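re: that chain from earlier
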Amino acid sequence: MKIDVCSKKEQDYIIDRLVEYNLSQVEAKQKENFIDLSKKIGKDDKIVAGIVARMYCWNVVYVDTLWVDSSYRGKKLGSLLLEEVENDAKSKGAKLIHLDTFDFQAKEFYEKQGYIVFGILENCPEKHYRYYLKKVL
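^ sequence. v structure.
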């Protein structure tokens, strides 16, 4: 046996096997295992804000990325995108949403949106914190 670098196709294979195992342990609650909920806000054919999120297997949403161009911050675009994803997710049966952020990013923003910290990873990166937050929908 040898250890080698994975191609994208091989990564997908590995993920599919883990999902297969997970669903053998806990039955899926939604028709599709993964539902894309990603949204964007554009102006003049340019993306000025966006959110990447997926609802997975058990009516749970993971927000991978929420970004607002620096010249558009403070205009509530992040709140608008997050609310849009939450509402879309609820309409599809979601019960829980979770995400993570760093101490130099947006912890307070998420707390204002009703998220609570359930975990902290210290020194990630060094001398900083990574916060894990959740919200019941």
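DSSP finds three helices and seven strands in the chain.
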